[in-house]
Amino acid sequence: MKSKKSFYNNTIRILLVSFAFCCSCSNISSNEKMITNKNDWKNILHKELPLLGHRNWILVVDKAFPALNAQGMEVIYADDNLLSVLKYTLNKIDSSSHVRPIIYIDKEMQFMTPQLEKGVNAFRDSLKNIVDNQPMHPELHDSVFTNIQKTSELFKVLVIKTNGTRAYSSVFLQLDCAYWNSEQEAQLREAMKSGQQ
Length: 197
Known about the structure:
The chain is α/β, with parallel strands linked by helices. It has two domains: about 1-30; about 30-195, RbsD-like domain (RbsD-like fold, 3-Layer(aba) Sandwich), CATH 3.40.1650. The chain contains six helices and six strands. The chain has helices at about 1-25, 40-50, 80-95, 120-130, 140-150, 180-195, and strands at about 55-60, 75, 100-105, 135-140, 155-160, 170-175. Strands 2-5-1-6-3-4 form a six-stranded mixed beta sheet. Helix 3 (about 80-95) runs parallel beside helix 4 (about 120-130). The chain is globular.
């Protein structure tokens, strides 16, 4: 009788430990990659970039950017400052043959003052230097979330979370085709309407 009771107790203990383990593992979303090496995020970007194309996004975000639950999102952590990660990411995109970035920033950043956040002017200057005079399209922070949520239903979004701790500093890169532009697309559609070949 005693051995039967200890068997049940042991079985219950095993089940409880297994349940606790499963619960702790479920906190790590399947679309989040654990980074064990400081440069792992660069290796992931290097592998992912050839697979990404027109209408995919790469987000370079600050540390407080929330973990998003959308299925099409992949989150990786770069233990580096936001501007360094952005510069590396833009260089990788620029050296690719198939995509170019359309750059979006939080509109709120344009209204930040040194009184609200120390060093914001230097941050904006550095950001302009890194994007190398490419146009930056300001969007309200909440609008960005709405756009990304819709996008991730169909297209992959790669989120690179940095150790940056500046409010409204995230940069959102919508990938566009590098070898086809909107003027060419408009001409093609016009030709299709008129039946020309």
